[in-house]
Write a structure and sequence with these properties.
- By secondary structure, this protein is an all-alpha fold.
- Helices cover 55% and strands 0% of the residues.
- The chain is globular and about 30 Å long.
- It has one domain.
Length: 73
């Protein structure tokens, strides 16, 4: 299952705002788990990520990228 974190939300918004993915995060309440999970699923679908990558590995990747984006390394 995907885990919400502010860094994950930040990088997903960045992908969305810069049109790096074909989904829109405008108005999404990332703290609403169902909405958050749907965004993660859309992200995985966009990049054709296989089932074994979903959630477990994608959480780690998004967290690291979000942390880098925040300048919190």
């Amino acid at each position: 299952y995907p885990i919400y974190d502010r860094f994950v939300a930040k990088i997903l918004k960045e992908y969305s705002n810069n049109n790096l993915c074909d989904f829109n995060c405008t108005g999404i309440d990332f703290k609403d788990y169902e909405q958050f999970r749907n965004v993660i699923n859309n992200f995985c679908d966009y990049f054709n990520l296989p089932g074994e990558v979903r959630y477990r590995k994608i959480d780690k990747y998004l967290w690291q990228r979000g942390k880098e984006l925040s300048g919190s390394i």
